[in-house]
Amino acid sequence: MAYFEVAAGLILLLFSGDYLVRGAASLATRAGISKLIIGLTVVAFGTSAPEMVVGIDAVMSGAPTLALGNIVGSNIANILLVVGLPALLAPMTCDAPRLGRNLFIMLLATALFIALAFTGSIGRPQGFVLLVCFALFLIYSAMRAKVGGAAEITNCDEIPEKPDSYALATVLVLGGLVGISFGADLLVEGSVVIAREYGIKESVIGLTLVAIGTSLPELATALMAAIRRQCDVAVGNVIGSNIFNILAIMGISSMAGTIPVPQSFLNVDLWVMLGSALLLVPFCKNRSTVGKLSGLGMLVLYGIYMFYLVESGNATATIPFTS
């Protein structure tokens, strides 16, 4: 039953998130809100709503380390898996406008998060710091876009050229919210049951099963971009997603309750997240591409990390996410 709950939860999150973004973007468009603001707020929050609700649900359900594992694991997967796997199909270009600047912001956010984690827990004070930094990032992004870089946002695929009617958009938003709520609850409940059944730490389930599941939309988008040979913004989307995960989702999740940071995160996982982020530096600095060899290397590193997590979590070879 737990496996069914996890599968159903992931499916609900995937489709409900899409419906929520479509409906919310349509309502915002019909209300006369500029595409720039929609891209920076409605789409950004909507596409990350599943991760956000999973984090809040995990904290309120008494499994806060699952929420922490989801954020850290998603950021690692976004780089090593979401960039590495599509690179086997087509070169992932790293020459989008202001990509290097956003990468620098992601590194700063990662360093800040690690520093806060070494206080022993992420509670409301730490979450407030993260949310203030996120607000500053949104203001900075809006100012930069208004200067002359709005094209990346206004051409966002999630913003409909022809918005849905008010009635349909409202149904999509409400249905999306309900679906995300139920999906998050099923995913968290099933994950916790699996963790306890196999004697696996909840944080390890968050780093693996939940993190990979909530990263599937980004992976699907990147794979489609690689198939269509349109990889110019894929890396930028990954960087933006990682910034949002750290500053917004972790900040909001910590408002629901204190999230303790296990020693294993301080010793290994947080540094793997930072190391993964640093892997993108030479590609962005040289405005080069992540080719097949580099992509394969990223996948190998991700496989090694998954193996480490299985061993450290006292898991067996039959653990569900290895199927």
From TrEMBL:
Q: Which residues cross the membrane?
A: 6-25, 37-60, 66-90, 102-122, 128-145, 166-184, 204-227, 239-259, 265-283, 290-310
The record, for PANTHER family, names: INNER MEMBRANE PROTEIN YRBG, SODIUM/POTASSIUM/CALCIUM EXCHANGER
> Membrane topology for this entry?
Multi-pass membrane protein
Q: Where in the cell is it found?
A: Membrane
Question: NCBIfam families, per this entry?
Answer: calcium/sodium antiporter
| Record keywords, A-Z | Membrane, Transmembrane, Transmembrane helix
Any single Pfam family the record assigns to this protein: Na_Ca_ex
According to UniProt, the name of this protein is Calcium/sodium antiporter
* Ranges for domain Sodium/calcium exchanger membrane region: 6-141, 169-309
